[in-house]
C-alpha cells in the first residue's frame, strides 16, 4: 500500500502527555514508511515551552496556511484536549481544514473557556453564547464560577463541549466507550474507537515484596484524582495504617496540598509525599519502590488515561474507579472500586494484597501482558492507518457536511436549527456513496 503524508496538529512540548504519546505513534508510522509532520497547536505562554526531542519535522500551525496544508498532505489529524494554551491554535482552523479529530478528553470546557477569553474575545459572553447554540441552555448559573469544581462536574455530565469540536471534524477517533455516543452523534464522518497507545520503556521492575506498600498517584493532582479516598482507605484499616504510604507524582496546587495534609492530620495518618512535576527520568526513579498505582477518578474528564497505561505496563497492581475509560480493560486485571465507595473497596483490595501478595502480583502481570498487546503505539498506529484508508470513501460527504456547518456557524445558527438539519440531509443524500 502507498505511503501516506500525514499532518498531525498537536502540542509538542515536554509538559504535554498528549505530545509524548503522539510522538510514540508517529515514530511507528515513520518506521512503516509514512511521513508525519507535526503542526504545533500551542498558543500564549505554551509557545515558549521546551520542545520534545525528535527528528520529526515540526512547524507552528500559525505559520502555515490552510491551502498549504491541503496541498502537502493526504490526511490532517488534530489532537483535541482540554488545555487551551496547548491546543488553542486549532479552534479557528477546524472548519477550513476539516481534520480527523482525535479526542483525548471528554470535557472541553477549559478549551472553550480559553477560546472565549482569548485576546479580543468577549469572555463569558462568548462562552455562554456558544453553549446556548450547542445545547439550547446555559453552561452555568449566574452565581457560579467557571473555575468551580462542582460546576465542571455538572458540565462534564450534561454539556461537556465535546460536540463543539466533533461537529467540525470530517472523522473522529475516540479512546473508550463512555463518550462514543457524543462523538458519533456530532461528527459528520466516520468514527472509530482506538484504545490509547503509549510506550513506557525502562520502567523499574516491581519491587521485591517486603510487607509494606507504597501507593503512587501519577499526574496533575486535581480533586478528581481521589487522593482523599486513598487517605480514608488507609485510615480506616488497622492493618494498613502502619504499613502504607502515599506518593503523589506530579504537580499539585497549593490549595489541594493543604486540603490533603489537613485531612491526613485529622485522620491520624502520614501525609502524602509530593514530588511536584517530574521528568520522564525522574518518574522512573520515583517508581522504583512503588507497589501499587492508583488511578481512582471521579468525575472522569479524560477520554483515556496515560496513567492507567503506565500502571498496567509497569506490572504493578492498579486501582481504578469503575466508570469512564477505566472499565474498558478486562475486569480480571485491575483493582476495581465503585465510584463513591472507593475508600472501602480500595481498603479491601489492599488488605487482600497484604494477605496474599501473589494475588496482587498476578493482577499486575495480566495487566502488563494486556497493555503490551492492546495499548502499545504499534497497535494504535495499525488501527489508525486502517481507519485513515477506510475514511477516504466518505471524505467528500463528510467534508461537504462540515462546509455546510461552517456557513451556519457564520450565521450563529443553533446546531439544532431545523433549516440547518434539512440542508445537512440534502447534502448527505447528494454525496452518498462518495
Structural features, described:
- With 434 residues, the protein is an alpha/beta fold.
- Helix content is 43%, strand content 13%.
- The protein is built from 18 helices and 13 strands.
- It has helices at residues 17-31, 66-72, 84-87, 94-97, 109-116, 124-135, 149-158, 162-166, 180-186, 227-235, 254-267, 280-286, 306-313, 342-355, 357-374, 377-391, 395-410, 418-430, and strands at 5-10, 35-40, 58-60, 75-80, 100-103, 171-174, 191-193, 213-218, 244-249, 273-274, 292-295, 318-321, 335-337.
- Strand 1 (5-10), helix 1 and strand 2 form a beta-alpha-beta unit.
- Helix 14 crosses helix 15 (357-374).
- The two termini are 21 Å apart.
Features:
434 residues; alpha/beta; 7-stranded parallel sheet; 43% helix; 13% strand
Layout of strands and helices, then pairs:
Layout: E1 5-10, H1 17-31, E2 35-40, E3 58-60, H2 66-72, E4 75-80, H3 84-87, H4 94-97, E5 100-103, H5 109-116, H6 124-135, H7 149-158, H8 162-166, E6 171-174, H9 180-186, E7 191-193, E8 213-218, H10 227-235, E9 244-249, H11 254-267, E10 273-274, H12 280-286, E11 292-295, H13 306-313, E12 318-321, E13 335-337, H14 342-355, H15 357-374, H16 377-391, H17 395-410, H18 418-430
Parallel strand pairs: 1-2, 1-4, 2-3, 4-5, 5-6, 6-7, 8-9, 8-11, 9-10, 11-12, 12-13
Helix pairs in contact: 1-16, 5-6, 10-11, 10-14, 13-15, 14-15, 17-18
Amino acid at each position: 500500500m502507498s505511503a501516506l503524508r500525514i499532518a498531525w496538529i498537536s502540542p509538542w512540548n515536554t509538559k504535554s502527555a498528549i505530545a509524548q504519546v503522539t510522538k510514540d505513534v508517529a515514530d511507528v508510522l515513520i518506521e512503516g514508511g509514512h511521513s508525519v509532520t507535526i503542526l504545533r497547536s500551542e498558543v500564549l505562554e505554551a509557545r515558549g515551552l521546551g520542545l520534545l526531542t525528535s527528528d520529526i519535522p515540526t512547524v507552528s500551525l500559525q505559520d502555515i496556511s490552510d491551502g498549504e496544508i491541503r496541498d502537502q498532505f493526504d490526511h490532517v489529524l488534530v489532537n483535541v484536549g482540554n488545555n487551551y494554551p496547548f491546543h488553542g491554535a486549532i479552534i479557528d482552523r477546524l472548519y477550513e481544514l476539516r481534520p480527523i479529530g482525535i479526542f483525548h478528553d471528554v470535557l472541553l470546557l477549559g478549551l472553550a473557556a480559553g477560546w472565549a477569553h482569548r485576546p479580543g474575545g468577549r469572555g463569558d459572553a462568548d462562552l455562554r453564547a456558544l453553549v446556548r447554540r450547542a445545547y439550547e441552555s446555559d453552561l452555568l448559573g449566574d452565581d457560579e464560577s467557571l473555575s468551580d469544581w462542582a460546576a465542571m462536574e455538572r458540565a462534564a455530565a450534561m454539556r461537556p463541549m465535546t460536540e463543539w469540536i466533533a461537529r467540525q471534524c470530517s472523522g473522529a477517533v475516540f479512546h473508550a466507550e463512555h463518550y462514543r455516543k457524543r462523538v458519533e452523534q456530532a461528527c459528520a464522518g466516520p468514527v472509530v474507537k482506538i484504545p490509547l497507545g503509549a510506550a513506557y520503556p525502562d520502567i523499574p521492575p516491581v519491587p521485591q515484596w517486603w510487607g509494606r506498600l507504597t501507593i503512587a498517584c501519577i499526574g496533575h493532582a486535581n480533586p478528581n484524582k481521589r487522593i482523599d479516598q486513598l487517605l480514608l482507605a488507609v485510615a480506616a484499616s488497622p492493618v494498613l495504617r502502619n504499613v502504607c504510604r502515599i506518593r503523589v507524582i506530579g504537580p499539585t496546587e497549593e490549595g489541594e496540598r493543604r486540603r490533603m495534609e489537613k485531612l491526613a492530620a485529622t485522620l491520624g495518618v502520614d501525609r502524602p509525599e509530593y514530588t511536584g512535576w517530574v521528568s520522564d527520568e525522574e518518574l522512573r526513579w520515583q517508581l522504583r519502590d512503588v507497589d501499587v498505582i492508583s488511578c481512582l477518578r471521579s468525575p472522569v474528564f479524560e477520554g483515556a488515561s496515560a496513567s492507567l497505561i503506565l500502571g498496567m505496563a509497569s506490572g504493578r497492581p492498579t486501582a481504578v474507579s469503575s466508570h469512564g475509560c477505566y472499565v474498558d480493560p478486562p475486569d480480571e486485571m485491575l483493582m476495581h472500586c465503585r465510584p463513591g465507595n472507593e475508600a472501602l473497596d480500595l481498603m479491601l483490595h489492599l488488605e487482600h494484597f497484604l494477605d496474599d501478595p501473589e494475588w496482587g502480583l498476578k493482577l499486575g502481570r495480566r495487566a502488563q501482558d494486556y497493555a503490551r498487546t492492546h495499548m502499545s503505539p504499534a497497535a494504535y498506529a495499525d488501527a489508525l492507518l486502517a481507519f485513515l484508508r477506510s475514511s477516504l470513501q466518505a471524505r467528500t460527504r463528510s467534508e461537504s457536511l462540515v462546509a455546510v456547518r461552517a456557513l451556519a456557524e457564520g450565521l450563529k445558527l443553533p446546531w439544532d436549527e431545523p433549516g440547518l438539519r434539512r440542508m445537512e440531509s440534502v447534502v448527505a443524500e447528494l454525496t452518498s456513496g462518495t
